[in-house]
Write a structure and sequence with these properties.
Elements lengths: L8 E2 H12 L4 H7 L4 H9 L12 H4 L3 H20 L2 H14 L7 E2 L4 H17 L4 H17 L14
Amino acid sequence: MDLETSASERVRDVVRGVVADSAPEELPLVDGLFQFDDATVVRRLSGSGRRRDPLGFGVGEVVALATPVVWLALNQVAERVTDAALDGASRGVRGLLRRLLRRPAAPRTVPPLTREQLAEVRRRVVETGRQRGLSEERATELADAVAGRLALAEPGDTDQSESARP
């Protein structure tokens, strides 16, 4: 039997929890990003989309921050796990309906994960961190914090910010 994490958590809540523990100086950035839907945050942190500086500073300053590393890596994993659970047809219909209704998507969540999936999350955070200019040591610290938070999540656990944030 595979050990699984026990609760789904919103990506944004995991990011805030990890940043609060590992890089508290970045909390104003995380809190500022909470005003946007997840797709907008990912687009802005990844540098895709418009070339304006929507965060008020250039991409060069974002490179060595923990926030984009954790958010982008978790988003990729959550997307992969969710997409694997859906077949292509339902994924396409959902995307079409979202575009037609022009409503922001519900916040992305990280569902319960197996040990193998937790290992993938950890690997993805290290890889993303290295690509974004973090040292191997710092990227590994963040990866351990993310995997630990996901592995220890309990049903009903929420970040303190959840009641105050959308």
